[in-house]
Amino acid sequence: MYDYIIIGTGPSGGNIAHNLFKAGANILVLEAGKLMNKKTFPRTEADTSARLYWGGGIEFDTDAKMGFLRTRVVGGTSIVNQCLLDRFDDIAFNDWKAESGVNWFTNEQLAKHYDTVEHALALHTFTANEMNRNAQLFTQSCDKIGVKWGYLRKGQSDCAQERGNDCMACLGGCHRDSKQSSYAGYLRDDIAAGLNIQTETEVTQIVHNGNTVTLHALQQSKPVTFQAKNIVLAGGAFGTTKMLLQSGFKKQLPALGKNFSTHPQFMSFGLFNEEIHAYKGYFQTVASKDPNLRQKGYKLENVFAPPISAAMLFSRTGAYHQEIMRNYTRMTCIEVAVRDENAGEIKVDNKGKLTIDKPFTAQDRRRRDEGRELIANILTNEGAKKVYASPFSVGLHLMGGSVMGTDSAKSVVDPEFRVHGYKNMFVADSSIYPNAPGINPSLTIMALAQKLSDQLIGANHGI
Ligand SMILES: Cc1cc2nc3c(=O)[nH]c(=O)nc-3n(C[C@H](O)[C@H](O)[C@H](O)COP(=O)(O)OP(=O)(O)OC[C@H]3O[C@@H](n4cnc5c(N)ncnc54)[C@H](O)[C@@H]3O)c2cc1C
User: Fold this and answer.
1) For ligand 1, is residue 25 a contact (CB within 6 Å)?
2) Cα–Cα distance measured from residue 95 to residue 93, given in angstroms and rounded to the nearest whole number
3) Which of 89, 113, 218, 381 is deepest in the core (most CB within 10 A)?
4) pLDDT beyond 70 at 133
């Protein structure tokens, strides 16, 4: 019998497993994905989709209008993310407080947890000489048009750019362990030191027996069972919500599955006469940091996409498609990320399949359209001959579904990270986000996980 079983190893599970392991707790970590490392991460874009992602690549909403990305590997989605790590502002926390009734959602209350996480990871804020041509054109145009921008902060130690490494390759896992994924940042050394982890083990059912919890799982397709005094669900918005839904908790928790948000991102490409090579070097170093856009509910990010993903972003075929791909090296790219409303819902059908409803509200559409118009302005002002706006949106920040709040009719998790009514089932991952913050979520996921870790260690729950 374990004192704690932690399910999932992304920014949330990785942090909690690390802290409890260091505190000497009797723990087991379960992860649906495989353990990979800098030597075994995929080397090509196609291989990355097939080997790292749930669903073998992209999962869609029920309308097939929005695609979602999340991974199934030790380290969770932090293995493929850009690791841009931002603290929330007061706007985000005030909106969380208003939605949830949780009064410790403030920068002051979370400062020490942010500090601990930031102290544990290598962080780097980009500078002017690290911008590639895509970023130079974006910032030059923003300056002319009057859009405020700023340098991004990334969790990375040594990317060896001078030796020709491109961060685009890190979208399939960092081959230098420079990116501060929850594997490189937390778990790698713990596993070497004997952390008890079972990989390729997907939890399918949670049975609550009062003082203990039984977990049924499939380990490489074979049924297995585990028991613990406490469990920590860290499967992410889809994973955690699905585990609770398919275990029948919806009856007691009517809000389960609701309030799904995802910061939908729409990319626009600008065609220039000159060679841009937007995939070179650090391909994401700057973004809009404009109070006006923040207030309007969207931000602009200077990004790019590897070739297969770029090709999939356009629904048209034939000459139009060829024109885009033939000019790939002369394209720049900016995306608008919308701070979306909470209208989505995560469900599980009677065959146990995840289904996602993600209606786009009138406000979401207004924000997208305004952002796209501004991007077109930025690109044409700097000399783009043509602008191609992708009709598809991608959700990379999966949030909600098991949200935190004081009212058990409207939320799933209480302000002490317990599933309402269950004293030994905890959640502190992206599923507890009450609404979309409009800010990169990972650092706050880790700060919340740190708060829960401190709470569990402090309360001496079996440690
Ligand atoms: C391409 C991309 C770029 C991104 N860039 C950024 C960025 O720059 N900055 C930022 O802040 N965020 C970024 N994100 C988002 C960020 O990575 C996620 O918000 C974050 O990883 C979520 O953390 P989590 O711990 O809640 O879940 P996850 O990281 O998704 O981890 C969940 C883990 O649980 C496992 N799991 C799920 N269900 C089960 C089960 N039933 N049994 C066992 N294991 C299970 C999964 O396999 C997975 O390993 C990006 C995402 C993507 C896809």
Assistant:
1) no
2) 5
3) 113
4) yes
Q: Residue 45's closest CA among 54, 53, 37? A: 53
Six-digit token pair at 75? 């380290």
pLDDT digits (tens, 9 = 90+) for 386-442: 999 999 999 999 999 999 999 999 999 999 999 999 999 999 999 999 999 999 999
Give how far Cα 106 sits from Cα of 84, 91, 160, 397, Å: 21, 10, 37, 21
Question: What gap in Å lies between CA 297 and CA 361, rounded to an integer?
Answer: 13
Is-same-fold flag (1-36+86-120+181-256+399-463; 57-67+126-173+263-395)? no
C-alpha of residue 379 to centroid of ligand 1, in Å: 32
| pLDDT over 90 (residue 462) | no
Ligand 1 neighbour 309 (Cβ under 6 A): no
What is the sign of the dihedral through the CA atoms of 445, 451, 454 and 456?
Answer: negative
C-alpha 183/C-alpha 17 separation (Å) is 11
For residue 442, report the distance from its CA to the centre of ligand 1, in Å: 8
Q: How crowded is residue 269: how many other Cβ atoms within 10 Å of its Cβ? A: 27
Q: Which residues contact 27 (CB under 8 A, 6 or more apart)?
A: 2, 3, 4, 5, 6, 17, 20, 21, 195, 196
Reported as a single tens digit per residue, the pLDDT across 259-315 is: 999 999 999 999 999 999 999 999 999 999 999 999 999 999 999 999 999 988 887
301 token code pair:
């990010």
- How close is the Cα of 11 to the center of ligand 1, in Å? 7
Where are the chain's structural domains? 1-36+86-120+181-256+399-463, 57-67+126-173+263-395
Q: Is the CB of 239 under 6 A from ligand 1?
A: yes
Q: Which residue among 396, 439, 452 is best mutated to probe the pocket of ligand 1, counting the most ligand atoms within 8 A of its Cβ?
A: 396
Question: Per CATH, the architecture of 57-67+126-173+263-395 is what?
Answer: 2-Layer Sandwich (3.30)
Residues composing the chain: 463
- Please give the structure tokens belonging to residue 280: 């070179």
**How far is the C-alpha of 266 from the C-alpha of 65, rounded, in Å?**
12
Please compute the mean of the pLDDT values over residues 20-33 and round it to a whole number: 97
With contact defined as beta carbons under 8 Å apart, do 448 and 12 qualify?
A: yes
Q: Tokens 């293995």 map to which residue? A: 79
Q: Is the dihedral of CA 6, 9, 14, 18 positive or negative?
A: positive
Distance from C-alpha of 372 to C-alpha of 391, rounded to nearest angstrom: 11
What span, in angstroms and rounded, lies between the C-alpha atoms of 450 and 446? 6
What is the token pair recorded at 5? Answer: 């079983």
Distance 234 CA to ligand 1 centre (A): 9
